[in-house]
Specification:
about 75% helix, two-stranded antiparallel sheet, 2 strands, single chain, TPR-like_helical_dom_sf
Length: about 400
């Protein structure tokens, strides 16, 4: 409002000044062209001159504007095309995130044709094609990506390796990743991650073992991920050695190579001890489990301890009964004690441990083993009851010695 008032005041002052000039300085102008003369007041001539100047300037501006019209039109069309390409790109990404692969691919392909920076368009379109199981289109879009961005080969090959890995084409994935390792270096974290996944898919634990040092140092893996991979690799190594002719010494040799922390890892200890039991070295396994259970309590280790048959079963039983002082209500320990007693033919003591264990928790194997023991002892009613309590009659208990005749 204030600006309007000021403008009106200025206009009034200018109008007053013109009126004052016309009244005090009337003057006239005479224009002669050949025999024609034109006479007018000074102020009319000034007004005509001003009008002519404005008209001339306006004409020049219009001519200049018309000459620039093709460039302006082109710029407008370019801007429209860019806006349209961005809209298509966004539409393609939204469709991809929602799982509409065909719709996404079409939008991204159209957007790529209208954009000067279309690498990402082609890469996402390739991923959409992979989701459609269209390998020809995957190859086509990857080739277009190579052409559109010759300096982005690493990015394109990483995308290619990811899709090959997801499709379980492990041999192809391995070839792509090894090329990337040469270009980007061995410590590239994501390429290393892809290589680990590929070797896992190939079950190539020999090469995975060679990568453990790199994985431990890589920023792409957490300490927990490294530990999990190391455990998996060493478990596979132990299983491979257990299949060799001299399995016992081979297992002990591999175990000796592990550090203290790894030897105290429950998963590795259980694998090692179970394999020793399978190849006839239960005595070594029992000693190793005793060493571990002195420091760390683990129900799985205790359960395995009860399954193993050492050369000195009496010593094995006494060692396990020592744990009852602190864990007399542990059902796993009680079950293991029952099994050791069965091997020692301590039938009454075994039955007592079985029954005590089952008071704390249901266990199919324990019910079945106790049912078999009861039948062998001549207690058919108890045997039937224990079979009934077992909720998986197809399962069988551990193969254990049984009494040859009922106890009197």
């Amino acid at each position: 409002m204030r600006a309007i008032l000021i403008t009106v005041l200025i206009a009034l002052v200018i109008a007053f000044g013109i009126a004052w000039g016309i009244h005090n300085y009337p003057g006239y102008v005479l224009v002669a062209v050949g025999k024609t003369t034109i006479e007018m007041t000074l102020w009319v001539a000034a007004f005509i001159f001003l009008l002519a100047a404005i008209s001339g300037l306006l004409t020049i501006w219009l001519i200049a504007r018309s000459l620039r019209l093709p460039f302006a039109t082109r710029n407008w069309l370019t801007g429209f095309g860019s806006r349209n390409a961005n809209a298509l790109y966004n539409r393609g990404l939204i469709a991809f995130s929602e799982g509409h692969w065909e719709k996404s691919r079409k939008a991204l392909e159209r957007a790529a044709k209208r954009s000067d920076h279309n690498l990402v368009h082609y890469l996402v379109a390739a991923r959409a094609s992979y989701r459609l199981n269209d390998e020809k289109s995957v190859e086509k879009f990857l080739q277009l990506a190579y052409v559109s961005a010759p300096n982005a080969h690493a990015t394109i090959e990483i995308t290619q390796a990811e899709m090959q890995l997801a499709a379980k084409h492990y041999e192809q994935s391995l070839a792509t990743i090894l090329r990337l390792r040469k270009k980007l270096g061995k410590q590239h974290p994501f390429v290393l991650e892809l290589l680990v996944k590929t070797y896992r898919g190939l079950k190539d634990y020999r090469h995975l073992e060679k990568l453990l040092v790199e994985v431990e140092r890589s920023s792409g893996f957490t300490a927990e991920q490294y530990e999990a991979l190391a455990i998996e690799v060493y478990q596979q190594r132990l299983q491979a050695v257990a299949k060799m002719p001299d399995a016992v010494s081979g297992l002990q040799e591999q175990w000796a190579k592990l550090n203290k922390k790894q030897k105290n890892t429950a998963e590795l200890l259980l694998s090692y001890s179970a394999l020793l039991g399978e190849v006839g070295a239960a005595e070594v396994a029992v000693n190793e489990l005793q060493r571990y259970l002195r420091k760390y309590w683990d129900d799985e280790a205790v359960e395995l301890y009860g399954r193993l048959k050492s050369a000195d079963l009496q010593k094995q039983l006494l060692f396990a009964e020592g744990w009852l002082k602190e864990r007399n209500n542990n059902p796993v320990l009680l079950l293991s004690l029952a099994r050791i007693c069965m091997r020692l033919e301590l039938w009454g003591k075994a039955r007592e441990y079985y029954e005590t264990s089952l008071r704390f928790t249901r266990n199919n194997e324990a019910y079945l083993e106790l049912a078999q023991l009861s039948a062998a002892l001549g207690d058919e009613d108890k045997s039937k009851e224990y079979y009934r309590l077992s909720f998986n009659l197809e399962q069988q208990g551990l193969a254990l010695p049984m009494p040859s005749k009922p106890l009197r």
